Amino acid sequence: MNLANRITVARILLVPIIMFFLLIKVKFPHIRIEEFSITYNQIIAALIFIIAASTDSLDGYIARKRNLVTNLGKLLDPLADKLLVTAVLVSLVEMGKVDAWIVIVIISREWAVTGLRQIALLEGTVMAASKWGKAKTAAQITAIIALLINNFPFTFLHFPFDVIASWVAAIITVYSGVEYFVKNKHVIDFSEKSQ
User: Fold this and answer.
1) What is the full DSSP assignment across 116-165?
2) Cα 176–181–184 angle (5° rounding)?
3) What does the pLDDT look like over 75-103, one tens digit per residue?
């Protein structure tokens, strides 16, 4: 359990804390500025999410820089990312802030690519993250933050940035998923093999 892996575990442990602040049935005070309104618990959840999301790059950097890459880290890192994004997106559906179909599309892609990665590993192949995979992560995080902070400051401009960001995240997520499967179609062998 090296430093990089501890950071990854910390990211996992932040997930239930974020969900607690998002889904707790307690009336928190609001901050109101003209037509904009947000509760303190949403602000706290957004700040914790930003901290948790930022550790994704940090643990990878530390692992590579200090030569701390381990099999445990390879397992935990993508798991932590998916837990974080999935938990917050499902919470946002519960709060009525994002359409369920967008979340279903994103989660389906994440687990489909995870399955493909597992098959590739069994074949002795490591699937590197593509530029579209990285763009997908950035788009998802941007959309989630915009939804968590109630479209601030775009509310004042009457511009639905949070909705547009959600659609963009869904589109890039699907595209990057298709790209993974097209580039790695050799990993999946649908032909019958003799015993």
Assistant:
1) HHHHHHHTT---PPPHHHHHHHHHHHHHHHHHHTTTTTGGGGT--HHHHH
2) 120
3) 788 788 889 999 999 999 999 999 999 99
